[in-house]
Please model this.
Amino acid sequence: MSSTVSSPTRTIRIASRKSQLALVQTYWVQEQLQKAFPQHTFEVHTMNTQGDKILDVALAKIGDKGLFTKELEDGMLNGTTDFAVHSLKDLPTRLPQGLMLGCVTEREDPADALVVHEKHKDKDLASLPEGSVIGTSSLRRLAQLRHHYPHLSFKDVRGNVITRLAKLDSGEYDALILAAAGLNRLDLSDRIHQLIPSDISLHAVGQGALGIECREGDTEILEILKVLEHQPTAYRCYAERAFLRELEGGCQVPIGVNTKIEGDTLTLTGIVASLDGKKLVKDSVSGAAVDAEKLGTELAHRAKEQGAQEILNDIFATINRG
Ligand SMILES: NCc1[nH]cc(CCC(=O)O)c1CC(=O)O
Model:
């Protein structure tokens, strides 16, 4: 005799942006969870965010206060959706009251990549001709690459990954810098011309990982999300986010990081760069991975002692004046 225990079923609503990359990422999450919890139904609800709509203003001028996340967060707060899938890089380090980072998934390659126009297919960053126009909307990429390659010039580029590639191919730019992770996820790995090594440019906080945001204390959802949690990536990203939070920057300040975990030890390297690429503050900390956030905060304090705050103050003044 066996009695049937009917497990409660429910419909779980996943919020996502509509860009191709966002959808690839969100459908992956949906598929994994649907497999793990066949008794539930996982639905994707797509929305446009401010960041998708405002395409004619440099990102650095708009600021970063949840440009790509606000509309998704409103949906969770008013109960129309249950969690949101983000590129962790786009998720602010301080979340609205009532929401939390519920899960960090396994990271793709967090490096930046050079993507070149066809005519430069035999070139790399060092050998691109003097004055080549490199498209990037990230101050972090701009500052670090200017430092190492003063012969290049930089121009803002907006829009999603596909739009940016179209602008490159039409001749508006000689090359672009894009996250390798995004290209890999979009099945565009063949466009990666050169992976930028970490001694040239440190990547963005959270780059290559997905961050799933949900309501604080929503134990049912948190329990479900556990199947996607990747502990080493989570430790690395908590350290990176604590570093950024303490420096009070967002995605749009020239702050780069690199992390590695060996055994139980996490090493975090961080850089704060001036826009002209002339001043760089770079340092590292190592310690127990379980103390990830503490390590991030400690590195930020050290960076401040070495002049990081002055660099950031100059940048905020420049952006607000422009
Ligand atoms: N800001 C846009 C954005 N957000 C996440 C990614 C790529 C994927 C990732 O870093 O996880 C990108 C595009 C890019 O930087 O090339």
Summary: The chain has a mean pLDDT of 92. The domain at 112-195 is CATH 3.40.190.10 (D-Maltodextrin-Binding Protein; domain 2). The CA atoms of residues 51 and 68 lie 5 Å apart.
